[in-house]
Amino acid sequence: MKLSTSFITLALALSPFAAAQDDARTISLKPLVNSVALQALTSKLTLLGHAREFLKFSQLSGGTRAFGSKGHNATVSYIKTLLDLTGYYDTQLQTFPYLFSSGSATFAANNEEFTTKWFTYGPSGDVTALLVPVANLGCDASDYPAEVEGKIAFISRGTCPFGLKAALAGSAKAAGAIIYNNAPELISGGTLGAPSNDAGPYAPVASISGADAEKVLALLNAGTAVTGKLHVTATTETRYTSNVIATTKGGDKNNIVFSGGHTDSVPEGPGINDDGSGTIGLLDIALRLPLFSVKNAVRFGFWTAEEFGLVGSEHYVASLTPEEQQKIALYLNFDMIASPNFGYFIYDGDGSAFGTKGPDGSAHIEKTFEDWFKSKKLISAPTEFSGRSDYGPFLDVGIPSGGLFTGAEVKKTEEQAKWWGGEAGVSYDKCYHLKCDDLSNLHTEAWVQNTRAAAHSIATYARSLDGIPRGTRSVPSQSRLQGLSYDDRKHYSCGHEVFDL
Prior knowledge:
Elements: H1 5-14, H2 24-28, H3 35-40, H4 44-58, H5 70-86, E1 89-109, E2 112-114, E3 117-118, E4 125-133, E5 152-156, H6 162-171, E6 176-180, E7 205-208, H7 210-221, E8 227-248, E9 252-262, H8 276-288, E10 296-303, H9 311-319, H10 322-327, E11 328-334, E12 345-347, H11 362-375, E13 381-383, H12 392-396, E14 401-405, H13 414-420, H14 444-463, H15 486-489
Parallel strand pairs: 4-5, 5-6, 6-7, 9-10, 9-11, 11-14, 12-13
Antiparallel strand pairs: 1-2, 1-8, 3-7, 4-8, 8-10, 12-14
Helix pairs in contact: 4-5, 4-8, 8-14, 11-14
């Protein structure tokens, strides 16, 4: 996407230190980066300025910056354009295809609306028709009576995959299908298993709970005609999408200090905290760093498709040779650093809180952050290395890692409310993965503090890697994402277990 001249002028006004073009000679004449000076350049004004632009980008694609959308592509272009204008970095777009599948569904029977879930890969459709119960469990073509043609097939969960039921309904020329649970609750995480099925074309399909199905079945069994209204909005397509990778021209390329955050949102919202906050914090640091020189090269990764299972960061790490992996001294991750009901959480590098430590050097990174918060008289707490963000692929190849997090869907405890303020019994981010993750969903004080902590860590390690082992690493035989299905992989995005006394 091409950005207008006025748009670039505005962005540079937010980050005035990025305007001068650099070459090797001018870089070498600059003072060595130091933590205090780099932190001092963090400003709420510039952070919010970038956030407003991200929100505008989301409006290009109906309120989302999901990967491959116009809103996401504009985000990627904005980041790369600003970094290129500094002349301080070698930048690249790492572009690749990935399947995008997202949708939503609503269903009503005789005008009573029921909570409804969409199935991954399910097609769009808008159907108003009578419900026809399907015999048995709908796992055989003979279970679908002739009168289901043009109607909505009403099918019980059980025995065979959802995808086969939806395909057999389509083969029987049903206009739509409802699969109801064989237990009282809703079906969670439903998927048709693949974009297509040999048994037939998918009918537009959604699920309801077993408890709601009992109401419908009572009417059908009593001989009452039941008219269903099924509306499914869905997209399943392969999209091309890009990571932005920026490496300082100066500094030792055999000792790279890497930090990253993801540029995409979920399809349901603009993602201004998740992870606009982490992305913008790193972008702001990257646009200030050109005032300084670095001893160790600094690299920034702005990852795509994290919300679909760490796709961008996994693709990047998998593309590196063992020799290139070895050059990365450490990785720092910043995902959701401005949650409105925040906590100051640090990844549990030494494993003391959750029992799963990171590769050697991760404990040092954790302590670097802990010491920074102590110096500011702020309480911090550990968060688990669960693999649910872009540090996961780096852990999998033995790269010491760390980072910050302010909480997602988990509720804040009474003790934590005493530490950090906010509301006990309320999620750290009540707009997590929702439409309301907009400008009003940012705690700016926490955001500024975390951005300064990030600047401190980058400046510290850009000067010295004392405490970070640089010998040959032992690498696990496979990544935690290897072999996972498309749907299982999507569970690896954002969110972490956090420490509770």
